Amino acid sequence: MPNTILIGAQWGDEGKGKIIDVLTEGADWVVRAQGGNNAGHTVEVGEERFVLHLVPSGILHDGKRCVIGNGVVLDPVALVEEIRGVMDRGFSVEGRLFISDRAHVVFPYHRMLDAQGEACKAKDDQIGTTQRGIGPAYSDKAARFGLRMGDLIDPSFPEVLRSRIEDKNRALSALGAPTVEFAEILAATQEAMAVLAPLVCDTVPLLHDAVRAGDTMLFEGAQGIMLDIDFGTYPFVTSSNAGSGGAATGSGVPPNRMDRVVGVLKAYTTRVGEGPFPTELFDADGEELRRVGREFGATTGRPRRCGWFDAVVARHAVMTCGVDEWALTKLDVLDGFETLKICTAYELDGRLIDHVPANVRQLARCTPIYEEMPGWQTSTQGITRYEELPAAAQRYIARLEAVSGAPVAILSLGPRRDETIFREPRA
Ligand code: GDP
Ligand code: IMO
Ligand code: MG
């Protein structure tokens, strides 16, 4: 397998965890390069269901090695809990999980500032974050005030933390929020570091040597391009580059070592949290997508907003991430629909546009232009060959390819590994 970047091509929760899991077979390394435990990646192996937040999904394949790169923000206490959960279910991390010493740390004060920041905003400005402290941790990184994993294993850590906490407590007090206890945070962090310290290293030479030796890399994107801090629906986004560029800056593996970009695309659209979503449905079809697709957040349990497939969004992913091929997921969720709609363009203030406007107020005014297609109204469960799909399903996929501008190479018809169809490359 070529070195592959896998990204979410919508607003997250496209099924990246499942696709990473099936692609891990062909990779030596699985690398997370951005985001934090705001992510929730679900993998079903046999009867077992795993939800991973920080640990790369490749950990569920014995012998594969996983890296949490410099671009990730990492809550040490949450990570230890997750590692214990994975180990309890029979997977080892020793010699298999490596954590960048450059990865920034999420502390409890980041979580409190996240919650407080949201509470202080006017209703229309609230983002609906996962409240995992992601925004405040990346803010500290950009403000050059963050602490990195390497700082936590340095003898100076207690003193540096004390001074940070004094500063953060002033900020929390000014917001009228409760303050945090230095001794408590120090003890919890040191306890977590007793587990994590052996896994922390400089992952740049590690990955460099692996690439030189011919090992193959799979980069596990978190969130999706519409939540990317630059190309998403700013400010209703997360705080990292969820697009393919983030894989390089967040790992130290340079762009000219990357060979292929796979975009994970749901056969319809979902979004959790606030912000514009042109094809959102508020009717029985939206309810049906949520019910059949089990669209409830893997991290926060919130119901996901659901809507029709949006090709304007898919094209935005192709342009900004260089998507070579799609992994199209959850096609099975559409099995019962009589009619399907595909949004091919927007109408904005009386004009037709074919791209995502940068301004979020403009995007909120966009109304979708739809094409309608007949559904197939038969179960696709158990189908293992593309040619066996109902003709209407094949036509739907062909239309998505035509209007999105990239081919569907992987098709997912269920959460399990064996519910996946790999298509032969076409001319
Ligand atoms: P991620 O954040 O992109 O990894 O996606 P999530 O794990 O948050 O959400 C995707 C959900 O859809 C999970 O519950 C998966 O088990 C499930 N899933 C993935 N692929 C398919 C599929 O092809 N069909 C169905 N029905 N469910 C799927
Ligand atoms: P995965 O990797 C879906 C959303 C939040 C909120 C916004 C900002 O599972 O696809 P944050 O906590 O990051 O500051 O929240 O981004 N969000 C996600 N939505 N899937 C995710 O990750 C998400 N991670 C963050 O709901 O709207
Ligand atoms: Mg998710």
Give a description of the structure.
The protein has 427 residues and is α/β, with parallel strands linked by helices. The chain has three domains: 160 residues, Adenylosuccinate Synthetase, Chain A, domain 1 (3-Layer(aba) Sandwich); 92 residues, Adenylosuccinate Synthetase, subunit A, domain 2 (Orthogonal Bundle), CATH 1.10.300; 158 residues, Adenylosuccinate Synthetase, subunit A, domain 3 (Adenylosuccinate Synthetase, Chain A, domain 3). Helices cover 32% and strands 20% of the residues. It is built from 13 helices and 20 strands. The protein has a ten-stranded mixed beta sheet with strand order 9-7-5-2-10-1-11-15-19-20, with helices on both faces. Strands 14, 16, 17 and 18 form a four-stranded mixed beta sheet that branches. A two-stranded antiparallel sheet has the order 3-4. The mean pLDDT is 97. The site of guanosine-5'-diphosphate has 21 residues, from α1 and β3. The site of 6-O-phosphoryl inosine monophosphate (IMO) has 24 residues, from α4.
